[in-house]
Structure formats: C-alpha cells, structure tokens
Design a protein that fits this description.
The chain is α+β, with helices and mostly antiparallel strands. The chain is 31% helix and 23% strand. Strand 4, helix 3 and strand 5 form a beta-alpha-beta unit. It is globular, with a radius of gyration of 16 Å.
Length: 158
C-alpha cells in the first residue's frame, strides 16, 4: 500500500537520497554521495518551507519509507488584466525507486496535476526523459507544443 502526501522539511534527507539515486544513475557524479546528499538536504529544507515556490509530493510505503517523489516549482507570470492565470509551473524530478515501480509514478503525477488545477496554474512544463514521454502523453501533455528552449550552458566534459 502506497500513500501519496505532501513532502515536508522532515523528508529532506530521504528526498536528497532519492535525488542522488535518480541523477547519479543518469550522469557521472562530480561529487561524492555524502557531499551531494548533505548539500541537497540544505537546499531541500529551504525550498520546502512555505512560500519558496517549490512543492513536492512523497510516495510512502506502509512502513513509512519514501520510495518516490515529484517536485513542482511555481513560476509567477507578469500580472494580467484579464482572467488568464498568473502562474506556470515546472514539473521536475519524478522518480520512483526501481523496486517500487508499477503505478506510483502515475499517482505522483496525478497529485501534481490536481494541485496545479486547484491552484489555477496556467501550464505545467517539463523536460521528460525519453522513457517517460508516454507517461506524460497519457495525461494530456503535448510533446511538440509551443514551448521553446535555448540551452545556454553546458558543463565541461569530465
């Protein structure tokens, strides 16, 4: 049994460990696990405080272990004189531990979308991994929409 709930400051250590697991499996780390987790805990504690723009959800097993997460950052738009929403949001870091996969990612995305609708977010944007494109398409995300991007920085090769 999995429960999806809002992540709190108290979850920062486990969420930082999941972030390491997620990203170190994609790219070669440039810092040790311990250094990264310590740095990430501080960042997550700050960002999970009320009013910082980031929101996160945790997928929690019956024994209390967090096995998945998704993050959303609110992006304020310039005020509008019409009824258009004044917020976008960036969905990021959807990750479920391999041993817990099989529907939890769907539940996490559902929680983020429900939050976005309640909070009148104009658009959710994201940069999906190739293997997750089909998941987002099932929720109605467009893959060739009107979002454009320009990569302005690339890290040096290691």
């Amino acid at each position: 049994m999995i429960h999806i709930r809002i992540a709190t400051v108290a979850d920062a250590r486990r969420l930082a460990e999941l972030r390491w697991e997620f990203r170190s499996g994609r790219d070669t780390p440039t810092e040790t696990r311990e250094m990264f987790v310590r740095r990430c805990i501080g960042w997550m504690r700050r960002e999970l405080q009320e009013g910082n723009g980031w929101h996160a959800w945790a997928a929690v097993k019956a024994d209390g272990l967090i096995v998945g997460t998704v993050w959303v950052q609110t992006i304020k738009k310039i005020p509008n004189p019409s009824s258009e929403s004044e917020f976008h949001a960036y969905l990021s870091n959807l990750y479920v531990t391999p041993s817990a996969r099989g529907g939890i990612g769907v539940q996490l995305v559902q929680a983020a979308i429900a939050w976005a609708k309640i909070n009148k977010i104009d658009r959710l944007i994201l940069w999906p991994a190739h293997r997750s494109v089909s998941l987002y398409l099932r929720f109605g995300f467009s893959h060739a929409g009107d979002v454009m991007e320009l990569q302005t920085w690339k890290p040096a090769s290691v």
